[in-house]
Task: structure prediction
Amino acid sequence: MDLDWKNLGFAVRKTDYHVRCVYRDGKWSDLEVSPDDHLSIHIGATCLHYGQESFEGLKAYRGADDRIRLFRPWDNARRMINSARGILLAEVPEELFLEAVEKVVLLNRNYIPPYGTGATLYVRPLLIGTGPEVGVRPAKEYTFLVFVMPVGPYFKEGFKPVSMVICRKHDRAAPLGTGHLKVGGNYAASMSSVAAAHEKGFATAMYLDAREKKYIDECGPANFFAIKDNTYITPDSHSILPSITNNSLQVLAESFGMKVEKRPVPVEELAQFDEAGACGTAAVISPIGKVVDEETDRVYTFGDGVNPGPVTTRLYETLTGIQNGDLEDTFGWVKILQ
Ligand SMILES: *Cc1c(COP(=O)(O)O)cnc(C)c1O
Result:
C-alpha cells in the first residue's frame, strides 16, 4: 500500500474488510468477514431511534521489527462490556471482542502504516441495537462489528500545546447519567459545545461537573490531567469516561517516582499547576498551554505556552515508545499479533 501516511489526518477511509456478528435468540453468531462498508438494518433499529449503541477506539502499531502491536485491547473489551451493562446492550464476550479485533487488523494488514511515519491503524469496534422497537425498550437483536482505517499522526505540526475554553452553558453528561460509559449519546450531547469552542478558535471545550460547576470533568472527548510538585493529578468523577490512556499515564507517573492523586479538581486549582494535558487514544496527550474561563475572565497558562512541559513530554515519549515497540513493555500492556 502506498499512501501519503503523514497526511492522512483523522478521517474515515475505506479498507478491504470489516468483521461482524449478530446476537439473536440469546447467542452470538460466528464472525463474518465483509468487503462492504455499508450495513443494512431495520429502520426501527433501537440504535437509530434511542441511541442504543456503544463504541470503542484503539490502535494497531507497526514496530521497527515490523511486528504488529495492540495496546491493552482487553481493557477496551472490558469497557465495552461495562457500557453494554449500562444501556442494556447484549454483552460482547472478551474473547469474541479480541478475536474480532485481531482478525480485522490482520485482514487489513496492508493498511497498517510503516514504522516511523507516526501514522497508525485506528480500530473502531461498534455495538448497536439492530432489532426494531418503537416503544422505548432494549432491542432483541444486536450487531457487533469492527472496522479499521489508517490515520495520520495526530500532531502534524509536532507535539504542541493547545488552548481550551471552559464550558459553563452546557453539560456533556449528567451527574448520575452515562458519562462513564462510551456511548454515542454523550457525543451527541457534546457536539454543540465543542463546535462553539472551535468557532472561537479553541481546540475543545473543558467540561465541569454538572451538579456544582466547580470541578473539572473532561476536555472534549479526552480526560484531563495536571502536574504539580512531582504529582500527577486527575479528576475523580462518576461522569468521566475511564480512559485507558489516563490509567497508563498514572502507572508511568508512579514508575517515575511521582505521586498520583485521583480526586475532585476545582477549576481555580488550574492556577497552581505546572503542566496540564488532555489524554486519550487519538492524540495520546494534547499538552494544554492555556485555559480560558470567559465567565470569570481568568486565563490560566502552563509553562511557556509554546513547548510542552518536561513531565508531559516524558510521559508522552514513554507511552508512545511502549506502544510502537521502541521501549520494553514492562507492564504487560502490549499484545503482539505477529
Ligand atoms: C474514549 C474516550 C476517552 C479516552 O479513552 P482512551 O481509552 O484513553 O482512548 C476519554 N473521554 C471520553 C469521553 C471518551 O469517549
